[in-house]
Each structure stands twice: as C-alpha cells, then as structure tokens.
Amino acid sequence: MFLLLLLLLLLLLLLQYGQGVFAPGIPMGDEGMYKCGHNLLRAHAKTYQLYHKVPQAKLDNVTFADAARGKVGIALNIEYLEPLTEAKEDVAAANYGLEKNLGWFADPLFFGDYPASLKSCAKDVLPSFTAEESKLLKGSLDFLGINFYTGKFAKGSATDKCSVETREQDVNGKDIGPLAESSWLRVVPWSFYKLLKYVQSRYDPKQIIITENGVSAPKEDSMSVQQAIRDDFRVNYYKGYLDYLCKAISEGVKVNTYFAWSFMDNFEWREGYSQRFGINHVDFDSPELTRTTKDSGKFLSKHFFRVGRGGGVGARRPGGRKPTKETPKAAKPAKQQ
C-alpha cells in the first residue's frame, strides 16, 4: 500500500503565492512562495512522524500496525538544466538552478536543511528551520516521487552567482527539442536520464517513483477522433524517454514504478480541455464522453506495461524497448554543504 502524502508541484508555488496567477491567486512574490513551501515541508515532516512513529495511531479505523505497512513520500516537479556552454558560469547556473528548484524541497527531506546556495541567494526571504524541525525533516520520506516532462539550457552570469537564465535554444539557435502543444514543454529525452542520474548521485533515495511523465501532442484538440488517436508525436516521446529511463535503471538508479501522464485526456489547469496529455482520447463533445485508446496507449501496453499484472518498470515485458547506448555526458551534481 502506498500513501502519497503530497503531490507538490514546485512551479505552482510560484504561480499561486509568488505571481498569484493560479488559485488562490495571492501575489506575495518570493517571500510568499518560500513561506508556503516552508510550511508544506514542516507539515510533511510532522505527518510522516504521525504515520510511522506514533504508537497506536488510528487512521479511519485502520490500526497503526496495518497503516505502517504503507509508505509516505513526496512528488516533486522538476525540469533538468543543462549548461548552455562549458563556461564555468553556465555550469554553476545549471547546478544552482537544480538546487534552487529540486533542492529547495529535496535537500531538507534528505539532509535536514535548504541548500547552502539557496540560503545565500534567497537569504532575505527564505525562512529557517529550528534544530528540532531539521531533525524531524531529515529522512522523512520512504520514496521520492518525480514529475518530469522536459529540460532546458541554463546560462549564468560572471558577476551574479544567483543568476539563472533558462533557454530552449543552444548557442547556434537550435531548439533543444520539438515543441509540444504546451508552450513550456519540449521533447528532450536525454534530460530525463541526466536528471535521474543527478538525483541518484546527490540523494541516493531508497526508492524513486516517476509520478508523472507525458506530453501534449500539437494541435490534437482540433483533430478528429480518428486523427487524434494516431498520436505518433506522443509515441515517439514515450519511446525516447523510456529508453533513457531503462538506461538509468540499468546503471543503478532506483526507479521501480512509473506512471504515464495521463491515462486519459483531462482538465489541464488554466488550459482546460485544450491541451491533451492522455493515452486514451476523450470526446468532450459526446454526452457519453466516449473514450478511445490512442496509439500511445497501445504502445505502452505492448512494450512497457503488463496490464492487470502489477505494471510498473519492474514488469516491463521481455522484448520491450532497450536502453539507448549513447547518451550525452551527465552533469556532476554539486555536493551538499
């Protein structure tokens, strides 16, 4: 039994309490964003302790002994950052960008405190943990969930160590990958591999669950059902990303469960029904909301999932896709100070 305590989308804190463009729509800038994240972490740590440590705890008439068989984790949304060039400021920007986003939440959960780089760059708005809170936070997860979709280039500044400019084109103006329907999402399979290697090297989690991975196919919402279910764009996305996922696993990354996003077309935040991520098509104009399996769903069923038999990475069918052999060199993660 799994208990996924918090599905935490890092970007949403910026949009909800930083810029205030997502519900609850409170524009408090960086101070509000970091305060919200701080309280989420404190709540997570206390709930983890309640679930695992408090004797005779009862959850909806389930005894502690029964409940303790579950696992508590957190899901973090992250984009991988690749240095734009080999210049030291670009390498530093990529490392800081990962610490600023992923490390903002992962470092307290694994090490008990925020990354030193974040404490330096956000010292005026980043709250601090007490010694008791730090002790409670460290190790307060049984698995790490990762929502992953894309990667970007990072450009730094020779004069500002806290500057991280993200780009979707390299120095020659070449796109990092094909653009999906979502303006923020480009298809960058190798970035999945690099992110997983980074996570394993920096945190060495007990278990990694890919809680979301998928893509919105371009113009799919304006297609007929028969056109939309022939979703080669999405099939190729999954082929590339799952190749690199399997490669990472073969090299010791502890992923054992994978969830594609999403099972069917759904309501995508402010975009409503206009961006389709599903491996099953939903006809929103039909009174019955008719579902039709897309080619991507058939691909995953044939090559990756064992439908009705547990599923997940460990259940990949023999003869499924094999890892790609050639991979760009992974960035070396900075060590926690």
In words, what does this structure look like?
The protein has 337 residues and is of the alpha/beta class. The protein has one domain (78-315): TIM Barrel. It has ten helices and eight strands. It has helices at 10-18, 29-53, 64-67, 88-111, 116-121, 131-137, 189-203, 225-228, 232-250, 295-303, and strands at residues 2-8, 71-83, 143-155, 165-167, 208-212, 255-258, 280-282, 291-293. The strands form two sheets. Strands 1, 2, 3, 4, 5 and 6 form a six-stranded mixed beta sheet that branches. It has a two-stranded antiparallel ribbon with strand order 7-8. The radius of gyration is 21 Å and the shape is globular. It starts with a strand and ends in a 34-residue tail after the last helix. The active site is at residue 212. Pfam families: Glyco_hydro_1.
List the keywords.
glycosidase, Glyco_hydro_1_AS, 8 strands, 6-stranded mixed sheet, disordered C terminus, alpha/beta, 10 helices, TIM Barrel, Glyco_hydro_1, disordered N terminus, 337 residues
What is the arithmetic mean of pLDDT? 85
The rounded distance between the terminal residues' Cα atoms is: 35 Å
**In sequence order, what are the helices and strands, one letter per element?**
EHHHEHHHEEHEHHEEEH
Q: Fraction of residues in helices? A: 25-40%
Query: What is the gyration radius calculated from CA atoms?
Result: 21 Å
User: Which regions have little confidence, pLDDT < 50, spanning 5+ residues?
Assistant: 1-9, 307-328, 333-337
Instruction: Give me the secondary-structure category.
Output: alpha/beta
Strand content: 15-25%
CATH class: Alpha Beta
Largest sheet: 6 strands, mixed
Instruction: Compute the number of helices.
Output: 10
CATH superfamily grouping: Glycosidases
Please name the CATH topology.
TIM Barrel
- In total, the number of domains comes to 1
Shape: globular
Number of strands: 8
CATH-derived architecture: Alpha-Beta Barrel
InterPro entries: GH, Glyco_hydro_1, Glyco_hydro_1_AS
Keywords: Glycosidase, Hydrolase, Signal
Organism: Tetradesmus obliquus (Green alga)
EC number: 3.2.1.21
